[in-house]
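thread: overnight batch results

M.L. [08:02]
morning all. the overnight job finished for the chain we discussed friday. pasting input first so we're all looking at the same thing
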Amino acid sequence: MTDHPETETTQADAEVSNLSESQEGNSVQPLPDVQPPQAGFLVQLFLIPMVIVAAIICVWLLFNVISQSESPTELVRGLKKMDSSSWQKAYTLSNLLRTPDSKKLKTDPELAAELVAILESEFDVEEADQNQVKLRVFVCRCLGEFEIPDGMDSLIAAMQRTDSEFEIEIGRTAVESLSILIQTLGPAEQQNNQALVDALLQTSNVQTQNAELQPKVDQLRSTIGFALGVLGGEQAFSRLQGMLGDSFPNARFNAAAGLARHGDLACQEVLLEMLDATSEGVVSGEHEGTHLFKRGVVATAALGAVSALSTHHDKEALADLLSAVESVSQSDAFGNQPKVIAQELLLNLQNPQE
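M.L. [08:03]
and the structure it wrote out:
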């Protein structure tokens, strides 16, 4: 320790002075002082983008309000324009037809005829864009909500067009709408509609040599499996039994659920697959991040199928399935909802309501 601190201070000042002169000699400029951000910069960075986003949202909300306020006649008139906004009007109309107070619309043959004309209008798959596809998709959904059969033939025709990706996409929605329409009009009555039965059976056997179309064809076949389960009847049951060995998992799962709806125990092995936490078939072709979700969805469908079977068979006949249900009720491999459903199902079977 020194006895002359003032000498140290003088030497330190000299060193700082020499350092500054050295920096000037080497043309090294000192860094500028850090300044707080200016208000104008903050406005450009945050406020302006927020205003733009808010404006877009307001326009979207305004469009929705205007669309919702249009009458069915005005909506259909907008559909006929076949422009880029027509599909949005079809979407609005499909939602309107699902409301409780739409009974009059669902039984209006003139409205159904207008929609049929749009669905059957010329469709050039070479030049079609997604707007034209979505228009027909939502028109199919509209026709499925009716309580009269006027749109059925048009939906059947749309289902059978499978030459392109666009047509298959529309056809799959047509099958979904047919399922709803079959349920509404009465499955027993529709089993006598041979045109419907034949179309479902034939389209469920569609093959493609185009590898790019194969996933779409598989999904279409899966959806038809569901429709056949809703329809029922000997011809449907025979085809569903054949689909239990389908290479596409969702197709055989829908076939199993459809047979269970009618009490056919032929579906048992596939249902056990659906309730197996280690089954690779359940998540085949799915992204790893969706495996838990997919297992949950499939298990929930299987639990509904076991519940349906329990109305046709006693617990002894369902022993293997109930053991699988017990496993689901204690497992976290399917997510929480299937676990709770399995517990409720077992409780209901142990204490059946009078």
